[in-house]
Amino acid sequence: QAQLVESGGGLVQAGDSLRLSCAASGSTCSTYSMGWFRQAPGKEREFLAVIGWSGDTYYADSVKGRFTISRDNTKNTMYLQMNSPKPQDTAVYCCAAATTRFRLAIPTTSDYWGQGTQVTVSS
Asked: Quick check: helix, strand or coil at residue 23?
């Protein structure tokens, strides 16, 4: 079973940039679709972006053009580059991985999840 660990969260000012990492261990994620989600207090978990094992990507409208998802299969690591973050981007950011035969699949609650990393954006 894969283990996912997020890192890179912290306090950032609006207009700055931040890169989150999601490191996978226990099993390879080279054939997984991997995605980023976030959850703010009082809100449901929100899908942000997903990247397939072959590099296909899909973004939610809320982050399209500002965040970039990428992966380095040689390091079993996925990244979320956050450019121009806003205070409303403040949340716990989680990564997830889904085993799929398709090129791209959004992970679900039944898939592998990390514990999350806090991102706080100050104005």
From this structure: strand
What angle (nearest 5°) sits at the alpha carbon of residue 118, between those of residues 90 and 3?
A: 135
Q: What angle do CA 32, 34, 35 make, to 5 degrees?
A: 160
Contact yes or no for 112/96 (Cβ under 8 A):
yes
Q: How far is CA 116 from the centre of its chain?
A: 9
pLDDT for position 53: 85
Q: Tell me if 105 sits within 8 A of 50, measured CB to CB.
A: yes
Residue ranges of E strands in 1-123: 3-7, 10-13, 17-25, 32-39, 46-51, 57-59, 67-72, 77-83, 91-99, 112-113, 117-122
Q: Please, which residues have CB within 8 angstroms of residue 121's CB and are 6 or more apart in sequence? A: 12, 13, 14, 85, 86, 87, 88, 89, 90
Report pLDDT digits (tens) over 5-64: 999 999 999 989 999 999 998 766 567 899 999 999 999 999 999 999 889 999 999 999
